[in-house]
Amino acid sequence: MTTKKIVQVEGKELQLSNLDKVLWPKAGVTKANLLEYHARLFPLTKRHWQGRALTVTRYPHGIEGEFFFQKNIPASAPPWVQTAKIEDTNYVVANDLATVSWLANLAAIEFHPSTYLAARAGVPSYAIIDLDPTEPQGYAETVDAARHCRDVLCEIGLQGYPKLSGATGIHIYIPLQARYNFQITAQLVKFIGMTLQRRYPEKFTLERLVKKRHGVYVDYLQNHPSRTIVGVYSPRPTLEATVSTPIRWEDLSYYEPRDFTVHTVPEWIKGRGDLFEQVFSQPQSLEHLQNPEIFQ
Length: 296
What we know:
Layout: E1 4-9, E2 12-17, E3 22-24, E4 29-30, H1 31-49, E5 53-58, E6 68-70, E7 83-86, E8 89-93, H2 97-105, E9 108-113, E10 126-133, H3 139-155, E11 161-164, E12 170-175, H4 182-199, E13 204-205, E14 216-219, H5 265-268, H6 277-281, H7 292-295
Parallel strand pairs: 13-14
Antiparallel strand pairs: 1-2, 3-4, 5-6, 5-8, 5-9, 7-8, 10-12, 10-14, 11-12
Helix pairs in contact: 1-2, 3-4
């Protein structure tokens, strides 16, 4: 039986349905729990998601069922949902909690905001080092790899901020002034990856073919306007209902991805605030990097 409920979210009327539907069976997370999670986290997620072209992954029958990616706004969207037309795609822009709640009601579990603001589609706000371990490597090896990345960033005068992917990977965001294109950010991360591969050939790879990889893969190709990466504080379709969560460098060894879930993150951030605040408040210049190896 389909249950429906009409609610007001920030002055916008929203029809919710199947609130008791279990989306994460093992973790016991229902659609109602997901909506509550977004309501509690939106003061933080708003800053990271607003104004950005949004791709979502929808799981109509929960994480154990089939899923699909959604880029274009569906025809059934409420009239108040804001959009951004970029090339041939009319993206949803998550500027308010009503829009996020509407998407969650559609069983959108993963939120992938663009690395650029929709108003400046060719200019990313940050470069991203995406570290992905190759089996049998796991989270511990990725933590070690992340620390080596931090060393290289320090050597070239840049700060990076780690975020757990929600699985075994780690994403390191490098906040940048809004003046560099994707070619530059991809070249920057490729240079970092090549430096690490040269220093620690057994630990790092830039090999695109999965069957040929070893150690931890540095995916510099994530720095492309058509690629997406799971957003800050976005839930993941894992058994434990993990969340992609920012973390301090010094805490990487004390926590595991399963520590950060839809159940635990709202309480965990209390007293800590937004650990990705610097990603917006401290954009960095690349003008000091004159080494032609980096941007050739």
